[in-house]
Amino acid sequence: MKPPPFDYFAADSIEAAVQALADAGGDGKIIAGGQSLMPMLNFRLLRPSVLIDINRIPDLAYVRDDGECIRIGPLTRHRTLETSSLVAEQLPVLHEAMGYVAHLAIRNRGTIGGSLSHADPAAELPMMSLLLDARLEIQSLSGRRTIDARDFFLGALTTDLDEGEMLVEVRLTKLRKGTGWAFEEVARRSGDFALASVGITLSHDDGKISNVRIGLMGVGETPMRATDAESLLAGQPFSETVVTAAVDSIRRTVEPNTDLHASSDYRRHLVGVLAEQALSKAWQRATQAAHD
Amino acid sequence: MTEPVVIRITVNGVEYEKSVEPRLLLSDFLRNDLGLTGTHVGCEHGVCGACTVLVNGESARSCLFLAVQLDGAQVETVEGLGTAHAMHPIQQAFHECHALQCGFCTPGMLITTVDLLKKFPEADDEQIREGLSGNLCRCTGYQNIVRAVRMAADELKAREVKEAAS
Ligand SMILES: Cc1cc2nc3c(=O)[nH]c(=O)nc-3n(C[C@H](O)[C@H](O)[C@H](O)COP(=O)(O)OP(=O)(O)OC[C@H]3O[C@@H](n4cnc5c(N)ncnc54)[C@H](O)[C@@H]3O)c2cc1C
Ligand code: FES
Ligand code: FES
């Protein structure tokens, strides 16, 4: 189908974009890569009065080293993140996950700001932001605020963003030296949205698991952290028993949907298998780093 | 409301100045306003890849772009690749490998291959398959398409070597 009629405004600054959002009184929509918004317009699931294009705002696409953290501009394309050497060195788990995001032509256009704001429960970047405890900078006419990723995702395609707000930066703390990590995903075809996936970072602390973070996606209304499993693992020596306990806990806490692509039971089973694989991979990497 | 906007856009090296409604998709602009019907439209939601074109040198879905966004941009479509008498090496390889049957997916496959081989000139079969994963073909079973892309990759590399030597 074709999109419904709307006005078009190419903003030249963040200020102009949030002003236009305010002027539209809740009927305006930002367009970044358009890779999620355009399908929704073509299906007429949305009828904004005005599209506010942020592609012409200078300096909105960047990946910067800021000491402790990596700062990412909202208009940074998936392809840029995928090929960024800074990301590969400092956030290897994100680098790995980017390889699973959509297809080449879509990665050329899609942006981190768009992916987080769109908040698809099976999208990689929202889960990565949760796993890596991202801090999100948000701007509106009334100023700036910062929100933790864990407070940002409220439901499928629903975030804490207000109608007049724009996501203006994503901050990710670098992984500490020696961090073990893993990202595992199963999708029907390469580049499709995930049926389920698991991301993990952890450290090897004198033979014990520490600083463990587990992110899950495709198995609920939002991406989530497996907080129960994280507590089960924290401070324990790595063993089959403790891994099994963590996997069981994950399977108990998730509530996946049944859809065309997979049943709820299948997804629940799958997320456990992926968690087990990811845990052992991450532990291997952390152990290797501890011995180097 | 929704007033037409004048854009200047270069398509296959030709500059156009056109007035477009903001909601006009690039795919429809190319096909209906410019008569360039080589760009095919399958799904209009980014899934099939038939409408893939190059925007400022990078592959993009033309059904997910608004013409109004492209003021000042360079677009290349399958019509810009080559002609029946002077085929682009990628077109030649598709022809030789029987990499098309009905041809519906072919423009998108060809344009995707241009970007794929620019980014991964040394692509192996797995990378070729991954690179084409966003393009659906209902006829060929993909085997011959992958063969064609490999042949095109070899040919493009051989040409580069020749050029470097001369
Ligand atoms: C065929 C296909 C397959 C895909 N597969 C995957 C996949 O496997 N994994 C995956 O993660 N994604 C996938 N995607 C989605 C893709 O990654 C999108 O690029 C991404 O979800 C949205 O980013 P965008 O820049 O295109 O946003 P847009 O489509 O431009 O915008 C999406 C939403 O976010 C809002 N928005 C955008 N930027 C901002 C901002 N800075 N501040 C506030 N609001 C903003 C818009 O108003 C809109 O509501 C796929 C898409 C397609 C078409
Ligand atoms: S028509 Fe654009 S991807 Fe199918
Ligand atoms: S040749 Fe018919 S769809 Fe590909």
Sketch the major β-sheet of chain B. Answer: 5 strands, mixed
CATH superfamily membership of the largest domain in chain A: CO dehydrogenase flavoprotein, C-terminal domain
Largest interface: A-B, 31 and 34 residues
Radius of gyration of chain A: 19 Å
* Unreliable runs of chain A: none
Shape of chain B: globular
Which CATH-level-2 architecture of the largest domain in chain A? 2-Layer Sandwich
Tally the structural domains of chain A.
3
Instruction: Indicate the low-confidence ranges of chain B by residue numbers.
Output: none
- Number of E strands of chain B: 5
| Subunit organisation of the chains | heterodimer
Quote the distance from N terminus to C terminus of chain A: 57 Å
The CATH class designation of the largest domain in chain A is: Alpha Beta
Which radius of gyration of chain B do the C-alpha atoms yield?
A: 16 Å
Number of helix segments of chain B? 5
Topology:
The complex is a heterodimer of chains A (292) and B (166).
Chain A (H helix, E strand, L loop, with lengths): L6 E4 L3 H10 L4 E4 L5 H6 L7 E4 L9 E4 L2 E4 L5 H6 L1 H6 L1 H7 L5 H6 L2 H7 L5 H8 L3 E6 L2 E6 H4 E3 L2 E2 L6 E8 L6 E8 L6 E12 L2 E10 L6 E2 L1 H7 L6 H14 L10 H28 L1
Parallel strand pairs in A: 1-3, 2-3
Antiparallel strand pairs in A: 4-5, 5-10, 6-7, 6-10, 8-9, 11-12, 12-13, 13-14
Chain B lengths: L4 E7 L2 E7 L5 H8 L18 E4 L2 E4 L12 E3 L12 H8 L9 H14 L5 H7 L11 H23 L1
Parallel strand pairs in B: 1-5
Antiparallel strand pairs in B: 1-2, 3-4, 3-5
Helix pairs in contact in B: 2-5
Bound molecules: flavin-adenine dinucleotide (FAD) and FE2/S2 (inorganic) cluster (FES) (2 copies).
The site of one FE2/S2 (inorganic) cluster (FES) has 10 residues of chain B, from loops.
